Each structure stands twice: as C-alpha cells, then as structure tokens.
Amino acid sequence: GKSMADSIATELRTTRYAGCDWVNQLYHLGDIVSAACLAHDLGNPPFGHSGEKTISTFFSEGEGAYLRDRFSERQWSDFTNFEGNANALRTLTHRFNGRRPGGFAMTYSTLASIVKYPYSSDLAGEKGKFGFFLTEQDTFLRIARELELRQLDAPEGSLRFARHPLVYIVEAADDICYEVMDLEDAAKLKVLTSDEVIATLIGFFPEERVAQIQKTMARVDDPHEKISYLRSCVIGCLVESCARVFIDNERAILDGEFNGCLLDHIPDPERSAFQRLTALSWNKIYCAKDVVDIELAGNSIISFLLSKLVHAVVNPHLNYSRLLLNQVPRQYDVNAPDLYGRIQAVLDHVSAMTDVYALDLYRKLNGMSLPAV
C-alpha cells in the first residue's frame, strides 16, 4: 500500500500539477500518504476484521452486555462499534502511561489521511464504521480545524466531517494492494488455480492490450511468474486510473462533496474487473474453510481475554484481578479512576496484541501452558 500511495501521489504531482509554480509545495505528498499507509492498520486487533467484530459484539450481545447502564450513549457506542480505524488514531495520538505528549507526534496531514470515516461512533450505522473514540474527539477537532475540514450536518451532539482529500489516495492504495496481492498469494497457496487468477487479472485490459500482455507472458513457463507480471500491470493500470479520477473530481474532493471511493469511479473495463476480483476474493479466499476456522478460534481467544480482563477492571479489589492486572504492560492505565477509562485500557492492551501473543496469553490464563521453572 505504501508504494502504491506514493505512486498515485507522484502521478498527481507530475501530471495534474506539473506546470503550477507552487508544485514544490506538494513534494512531500508521497511521504505523507506512504506514512499514512504504514500507520493506518496499527489499531487493528488480533485476527483482523473478525477481531473487531468480536470486540464490538462482546459488549453488544456477549458477556459484556450487562455493563450497558454504566456508560453514556456515546461511550457505549464506542465499545459496541469498536473500529480499527478509530483505534489507529488513538494509538498514534494518545499519551499512554510513561510516554511523551502527542503520542507518535505525527503531522496533522498524516493523521487526517488515515481517518476514513470522520464522524463519531453514534453515527457508525450498520457497518459500524467511525473515525474517533470519545477520548480522541478533541484531538480530531483540533486536526479538523487546523486543516479546515468541512463540517457536515449531523444530529445535535454528534460530529461528522468531510474526508481529508488524501484519505482517498490512502484508501485506494490499501484496497488495490490487499485485493490484488491476496489474489496472487491465493494462487501460490493453491486456494485458487493459476488459470482463475490469470483470467481475473487479464480482464482489467482492453482487447488490444491483452494481445500484447499474452505475448509477453508466453516468454515464461512458470504460472507464478506470469501472475507476478500481470499483477504489476494491473497495479500500474489502477494507479493511473485512480490518479485520473482524483484529477477529474478535484473540485468535489477539495470541497468535501465527493461520494464513494476513487475505485468506484474508475472506467470500464477496470471497474467491472475490480468488482469481479473482489467478489472472487470474498467467495473463494475470505470465506475459505481455513480462514473461517482461524476466525472462529480468534473469536474464542479474544472473547476469553476480554472476559478475564474486563471482569478484573470491574472488580479490581479481588485477588485474581490484582494478579492479572499486575501483568498488564504499564503503559495501559488499567487503574484509571473511571470504568470507561479502565475498559478503554483493556481494549488498548488486547487490540495491540499479535495473533500469537493473544494465543499464548489465552493458553497461560487457561492453565494450558506454564513458563519454564
């Protein structure tokens, strides 16, 4: 995603704005979106999007539901719509115990570039997408005012802003990277056949270009080499198309009136080919048995860890709670004076875990493994 975002930004700077006398002011555009691509997944919990769902449903329909009356509407919606994007902003900006003010101290432009859904959690809707927890609302407001992001209509007490223009580049680069690279990986892992992948990727090009591509592919016998070549052609094509959509819709994007993402607006055959690619990925990769088995295991692991840790911060006076909370890394404020802060600290801890760390802690707390004595 990092290199693709840089490529889209460079395409804009060297085409649309090449003749402008202020073009040098955009010299670091690629650095900003590259940094945003590296940072935007930092808030994702173990087991990816299924981990997000596990955390949110722990509170909405799981063991944590009994806590509903302990929180305000907005605090509760932060929990029941737990979102990796909002958590990324918190990870990057929150002053954790023992850390310096400002968190990672990133630029406002870089931070704004990762907020794909710039509104509060009470506006998350069916998809559960939003941009900042209540704890980071003031931080986001400061970013929005500094960058003059357009504030949109919202019910009283809620917040909604237009996206920063660079969000569109980061989002497109991320979607291109994961969708196309996942397809290539699926062929290597034999989840999809090489022929399926080649047919899907070649659908991005008009007939005249297909003949040229097939002639080049005929020079190698290894199907994975053919796919690697096709993948680079597809990425190049999508980078150019997304840059063109940005240029063609520049006014609407800068005014905060652009709808959808850049990939929704690319022309055919690229758009229909990308839709076929995402449908294939969903049906054959993301719903594959091995993937679902990992999601189910991840659900059990995260639910168990939340159960133990949330119970401990709700009942900190118990002996087991003290033992468990003493093991939590000190940057997470599990001793915060209010319960909202303590549960937020639990989510900070759990969401920062890797899959392997979460599994290891799950085994230890279940008595399934002991440290060597």
How would you describe what is shown here?
The chain is mainly α. The chain is 59% helix and 0% strand. The chain contains 17 helices and no strands. Helix 8 (165-188) packs across helix 13 (270-286) and helix 14 (289-314) packs across helix 17. The longest helix is centred in the middle third of the chain and has 26 residues, at 223-248.
Compact description:
The protein has 17 helices and no strands.
List keywords for this structure.
373 residues; mainly alpha
Please estimate the helix content. Answer: 55-70%
Average pLDDT reading:
92
Oligomeric nature of the chains? single chain
How many helices does DSSP assign?
A: 17
By secondary-structure content and strand pairing, the structural class works out as mainly alpha
Terminal Cα span: 44 Å
- Secondary structure tally: strands: 0
| Main sheet: strands, sense, barrel | none
Beta content comes to under 5%
N-to-C order of helices and strands? HHHHHHHHHHHHHHHHH
Radius of gyration, rounded?
23 Å
Principal-axis shape equals globular
Q: Can you tell me the residue ranges where pLDDT is under 50 for at least 5 consecutive residues?
A: none
